[in-house]
From TrEMBL:
It holds the Pfam family NUDIX. PANTHER family: METHYLTHIORIBOSE-1-PHOSPHATE ISOMERASE, TRANSLATION INITIATION FACTOR EIF-2B SUBUNIT FAMILY PROTEIN (AFU_ORTHOLOGUE AFUA_2G14290). The lineage of its organism: Archaea, Methanobacteriati, Methanobacteriota, Stenosarchaea group, Halobacteria. GO terms for molecular function: S-methyl-5-thioribose-1-phosphate isomerase activity. Belongs to the eIF-2B alpha/beta/delta subunits family. PROSITE patterns: NUDIX. This is NUDIX domain-containing protein. It comes from the Archaea. Residues 17-152 form the Nudix hydrolase domain. GO terms for biological process: L-methionine salvage from methylthioadenosine.
Length: 444
């Protein structure tokens, strides 16, 4: 918690008052930023914490001020994931009561600039905050409690309607990692219980699998963690190690798929929705022109178009979803690029509604369709459960109308030219063999 070395200068330092502070956890590649407090601060010198500071005004505003001052990161470099309920606790040594307002932000870079309030920083798995799990670094009081208030949960994964399957699969791995870390840390007090740890984590993995049953990548990556751990010691420590390594494996696979795809995006490309892997590939490939369907109801295609216009020299054009076939027929488009929520064993693709229309129209015009996705998005199941959006997103009037708002559709395999993956390019007929590999992970 950044503060003045002179106690009388600290807000809320009068007897009987509570000092309100903000603590932000910045997350990048599944790791969080920890900062070591320097000798220039008044409390908890030499201890590790998040980005912190006194909440002199509104905490939601102050936390962004602290991020800029303590890391040099600007507003565009971070995005708020969630805030949590404040944690109130007393520190008898300081004769002070604290109220900590926790926040979690996603951060696009590991590069930061320290202020004089800290003398070192590290990007580490959050479980490094736990005694006996990390490197015995001393943390400020209640740091792990603050993190737990904003960490991903099974419930937050189930309720997330904004992010894609790959993003949510990483959050699922973080849930497993964090709980495994707690169980390992509890060994100091309660002793090791390998069977009990495994049973608890297996039950948690089961709940994660049920949270988003339509997302194959979430299932496959969860199964990979548990299968790898079961081949090892089959306890909390094995799950912790496997979850951390699988997060790295997943992120590397996403980057490799994007790198492979970028080599194919040199001319004019049409896309829709917001696939992080497709977006990265377009940024790397810098095609001459990009057509982006607006992708209602959330219109995430507009966000993609704005980002591309800011970060690439490409000419970017947005259009309505209804104009997809017209645009492909009238404009000079060399390739269609889409992501995938799930790839079925027969090579058909489950993705944001509108993907089928785009692929069918492209097939009609003789335009190749590239599906950019890691092989972890291949489903082991033949069937698919398609999620639907809110009725009010289509119609919120008073008439007695039935409303359809499918958020996903299925594109036939015959409309897909290739799958661009971390393994290179695959034909639709190759997907069945990938599905067979992934079924082996389900036996844990």
């Amino acid at each position: 918690m950044s503060d003045s070395p002179v106690a009388s200068d600290d807000p809320g330092s009068d007897d009987g008052e509570t000092s309100h502070v903000v603590t932000a956890f910045l997350r990048n590649r599944g790791e969080v930023l920890l900062l070591r407090r320097s000798d220039s601060v008044g409390t908890y010198r030499g201890q590790w914490g998040g980005v912190s500071g006194f909440a002199e005004g509104q905490p939601d505003e102050q936390v962004r001020v602290e991020i800029r001052e303590e890391t040099g990161l600007e507003a565009d470099d971070v995005s708020l994931v969630r805030s949590g309920r404040p944690i109130t606790f007393a520190d008898p040594a300081l004769e002070r009561e604290w109220a900590v307002h926790p926040y979690l932000f996603d951060c696009e870079t590991h590069e930061i600039r320290l202020s004089d309030e800290h003398d070192a920083f590290e990007w580490v798995p959050p479980t490094a905050m736990l005694a006996s799990v990390g490197d015995d670094r001393e943390t400020v009081p209640e740091l792990w409690t603050a993190y737990e208030r904003v960490a991903p949960t099974v419930r937050s994964i189930a309720a997330d309607g904004e992010h894609g399957a790959a993003y949510l699969s990483l959050r699922a791995l973080e849930v497993l990692r964090d709980r495994a870390g707690v169980l390992v840390a509890e060994r100091t007090e309660f002793g090791a219980d390998p069977d009990g740890e495994w049973d608890e984590l297996a039950e948690l993995a089961g709940r994660i699998l049920e949270a988003r049953p339509s997302m194959a990548v979430l299932r496959n990556r969860t199964n990979r963690v548990m299968a790898d751990a079961n081949r090892g010691a089959g306890d909390g420590a094995a799950v912790l190690e496997s979850a951390i390594s699988t997060i790295d494996f997943a992120l590397d696979a996403d980057e490799d798929a994007a790198a492979t795809a970028s080599e194919r995006f040199e001319d004019s490309v049409a896309t829709l929705s917001r696939s992080g892997t497709v977006l990265e590939a377009l940024e790397r490939g810098e095609p001459s022109r990009v057509f982006v369907a607006e992708s209602r109801p959330a219109r995430e295609g507009i966000d993609v178009a704005e980002r591309l216009s800011e970060r690439t020299p490409s000419t970017v054009t947005v259009h309505t979803d209804a104009a997809i076939a017209h645009v492909l027929a009238r404009e000079d488009i060399d390739r269609v690029a889409v992501g995938a929520d799930t790839v079925l064993p027969d090579g058909s693709v489950v993705n944001k509604t509108g993907t089928r229309a785009l692929a069918v129209a492209a097939d009609r015009e003789g335009i190749p369709v590239s599906v950019v996705a890691t092989t972890d998005k291949v489903s082991t199941r033949e069937g698919v459960s398609l999620e639907s959006g809110e009725r009010s997103a289509v119609y919120d009037g008073d008439a007695s109308l039935d409303v359809l708002n499918p958020t996903f559709d299925v594109t036939p395999a015959e409309c897909v030219t290739e799958f661009v993956t971390e393994r290179g390019t695959l034909d639709p007929v190759d997907i069945g063999a990938v599905a067979a590999e992934l079924r082996d992970l389900e036996e844990w």
